[in-house]
Design goal:
The protein has about 250 residues and is α/β, with parallel strands linked by helices. It has one domain: 3-Layer(aba) Sandwich (Rossmann fold). It has nine helices and eight strands. The strands form two sheets. A six-stranded mixed sheet has the order 3-5-4-6-7-8, with helices on both faces. It has a two-stranded antiparallel ribbon with strand order 1-2. Helix 3 runs parallel beside helix 6. The longest helix is centred in the N-terminal third of the chain and has 19 residues. The model has no long low-confidence stretch (mean pLDDT about 90).
């Protein structure tokens, strides 16, 4: 009986990084499981407090995109302030606003914004590879200069997109770390970005990482949402409803 339970637990653990089928010593967890939990918890905490290496990331993105990236900063002056004041991470500081005001006034289709969010590790690991897959899908889009934001949250893309007069903003941001995913990247897509947009007006492609959604699949999903957003002139819950109705209609015709 005990051997069968251990075999079942081993099979479950082979299928998922979730903590299932953990062993026990009396009423306590086994030491190896406790140590593994502590290790993963420490990795998640490190990811939240890590600082993004902007110079290296900007150089990599400039090489990929063929243009210099803009380096911006939120109104949160440091990491401690950013974690305690989410509102400051949603808007730019004065120097960044001035830098955006100096950009060409030409209207663009898309503003790509890179923000550290709650995992700088995710941004450094996955953004360059994702952009290599995504940019070929955007050959017919007029792109603004890529922006890199330190201490930024999702909504900061609204201010940046509005300042660059972009029809759509895509924010690639480090997501809140989990105990098995300290480096998960998310992509948030907003039609006609401007301050005051809500999360219900965005679409998200999440869990972009080697162990999750692959770069190629994520790029295809982002490109699909962008094309639908441009065609229907909306994002968020309304876009999901439209695409769901299209799917149902096409299925009924089969």
């Amino acid at each position: 009986m005990l051997g069968a339970r251990r075999e079942t637990a081993a099979r479950l653990r082979a299928l998922t990084p979730a903590r299932v089928g953990l062993g026990q010593t009396g009423v306590s967890q086994e030491t190896r499981d406790l140590l593994d939990f502590a290790r993963c918890h420490a990795m998640a905490r490190d990811a939240v407090h890590a600082h993004i290496e902007c110079s290296a990331l900007a150089a990599a993105l400039s090489e990929i995109a063929g243009a210099e990236a803009l380096r911006l900063h939120s109104a949160a002056a440091d990491r401690a302030t950013y974690l305690q004041r989410p509102d400051l991470g949603r808007r730019l500081n004065e120097a960044s606003r001035a830098l955006l005001a100096e950009q060409p006034a030409d209207k663009v289709d898309l503003a790509l914004v890179i923000a550290d969010g709650l995992s700088a590790l995710a941004v450094e690991r996955h953004v360059p590879a994702l952009l290599r897959e995504l940019l070929p899908h955007l050959s017919d889009w007029r792109l603004a200069a890529i922006s890199i934001v330190e201490q930024g949250r999702v909504a900061i893309g609204d201010e940046i997109g509005a300042a660059l007069d972009a029809e759509i903003a895509v924010v690639l941001i480090g997501e809140r770390p989990g105990l098995s995913s300290p480096d998960s990247l998310g992509a948030y897509i907003t039609w006609q970005p401007r301050p005051g947009r809500t999360d219900a007006e965005r679409n998200c492609v999440s869990n972009i990482r080697i162990e999750g959604l692959s770069y190629a699949v994520a790029a295809s999903q982002i490109a699909f949402i962008l094309n639908e957003a441009r065609r229907l002139r909306l994002t968020g819950v309304a876009l999901k409803a439209q695409t769901r109705q299209q799917l149902l209609s096409s299925t009924n015709r089969l």
